[in-house]
Amino acid sequence: MADRVAAITAEAEDSVRVAGFDPALRRDLARRVGLLVAHESGAARGRSRLALEAAGWLGVGIALAVLTLTFVL
Amino acid sequence: MSQGSTTGGEVARRAVESRLPVLPEERVFTTASSFLWTCVTLGATGAGLLVGKALPHAGIGSAAILAFVAGLLVALVPAVLAGGIPSARLGVDTIEVSKSSFGVRGVALPLGGLILLCLGWTFVLAPMTATILADMGGAAPDGQARAGIGLAILAVVWLFASRGPELFERLAVYLGPALTILSFAFVVLLIGRFGMTAVAAAKLPAEALLTTDPRRGFLIAFEWGAATGLVGWPLLGGVARLVRDERHVVTPAIFAWGVVNPLSIILCAALAEVLVADGSPLGWMPIVGGALFGGVGIVLVVVANVNLMVILLYTAGVAVQHLPAVARARWEGILAALIAPGIYLSFFPDWVLDNVTTVVTYSGVMFAGITAVTFTDYYFLRRQEVETLDLFRTDRAGRYYFWRGVNLCAIGAVTVGIALDLWLLDPVTLEAAGPFLWAGATIPTLIVSGALHYAGTRLLSIPAGRGSYPS
């Protein structure tokens, strides 16, 4: 994990030179990106749960629309 | 600015006030309930009351609130998925993420829409809140008192926003439940006063209705819900980067906007519109609840309005730093510059309420196309993979450079979406084209914009090697 963060940080430090950031913030940006990428790849979970959650709410919305339309017509 | 520890207090503070990615341990929404109550306070404001007052005019009685919730849920789901989830995962604001869809320069389109929406509503809510307070204090409605109160409100909003997001998160934890309980109490009082039968059958006289056609009435209420839901893209996307766990984004936001608010503050305002004849947004509160309870209600709505303005200004303050000239300015200075036009506008409250509201309503139309494009891009074309580092690169070597920094497919899809949406239904005059009665306006716009972006990317961007899409 630490090696991965360091590698991404080094790459980021090199890349963000053109991003228009204050030079003092570039190192911090690079390290943050490194930490977040490592965090995200280590936490690649819950995507099917997200789909289920979204589909559930969308289903409620569509069902409510159909029922209400049937009721008012 | 310090170059020290990434998680140091000063650097962490700088991160939440800038475009820097916010690390999970720095985020202010640490539980599902803290984000839920913030979302409740976002809707339980003057804006929610106006929606509630408008619903009975759709002409389908109590079914209007169900049609409104249906439209809200159908639009809110893609808006939260496209605006909130990537922001929470990457710790950056929704404009940063949408560079992967629009290009590092093409992002000016959603950025302009977001700033117009956030500042427009801030400038509308300030005179609206000033009028409420002036009425409470007995000041003349058109007197200088309203301008003075409006200026004081803007000063408070600037002060709170410059202190960072912790303040509005802490306030929402108390304000959200208080507003919800208060609204339920007002519903009980209305039932007690008028009787359950009268409340259930509550309806406006025919001359006050926008239509007597039930299908059209259903679609108008549905579209009001959808328009409210689509605001979730800029608004929830702006604060979702402060949510620690992505699992706390979707259901708390949708439950707050789609269930809690419609069943409390919006229902309450809708019933009051029909049962209590009073022209002002909050004048019914003292009539129904008495001077003390009604006064408490008005104060809570005023505080919620101020809290919403703080969140809107915070969201605009972070987003506007995508302009290179602004990125190095001090946070307090950025907020002061954003709120400055509001100082001038405070002296013309009636003009603002009439005209800025119209501009904001029309500008909201673009979010159907933007939601469709960002949703399609992130979930169907990129399979939920965005390279954070490349969001910060503006050179040709960056993944999201497209054509001179602009993704022509995304811009084209949104432009067609805006034209289609406006043709199907004018959101201000409510003039509608024939097909509106069969499909509404928002759903066709979402589908057409999303399909155009998908087809354009498959046929143009990917073969041309633009945008680094997985093949």
Q: What oligomeric state is this?
A: heterodimer
Cα end-to-end separation of chain A: 60 Å
Strand content of chain A: under 5%
Number of helices of chain A: 3
Give the low-pLDDT segments of chain B: 1-6
Radius of gyration of chain A: 22 Å
Largest sheet of chain A: none
First and last CA, distance of chain B: 41 Å
Query: How many beta strands in the DSSP annotation of chain B?
Result: 0
| pLDDT averaged residue by residue of chain B | 88
Summarize the structure.
The complex is a heterodimer of chains A (73) and B (471). Chain A is mostly helical. Chain A contains 3 helices and no strands.
Topology:
The complex is a heterodimer of chains A (73) and B (471).
Chain A: H1 2-15, H2 23-42, H3 47-72
Helix pairs in contact in A: 1-2
Chain B: H1 9-16, H2 32-43, H3 46-54, H4 63-83, H5 85-90, H6 94-97, H7 99-102, H8 108-137, H9 144-162, H10 166-194, H11 196-200, H12 214-230, H13 232-240, H14 250-275, H15 284-319, H16 324-327, H17 331-345, H18 349-363, H19 366-381, H20 388-391, H21 408-424, H22 436-439, H23 442-461
Description:
The complex is a heterodimer of chains A (73) and B (471). Chain A is mostly helical and 73 residues long. Chain A has helices at residues 2-15, 23-42, 47-72. Chain B is mostly helical. Chain B has 23 helices and no strands. The longest helix of chain B has 36 residues, at 284-319. The interface between A and B is large, with 42 and 51 residues.
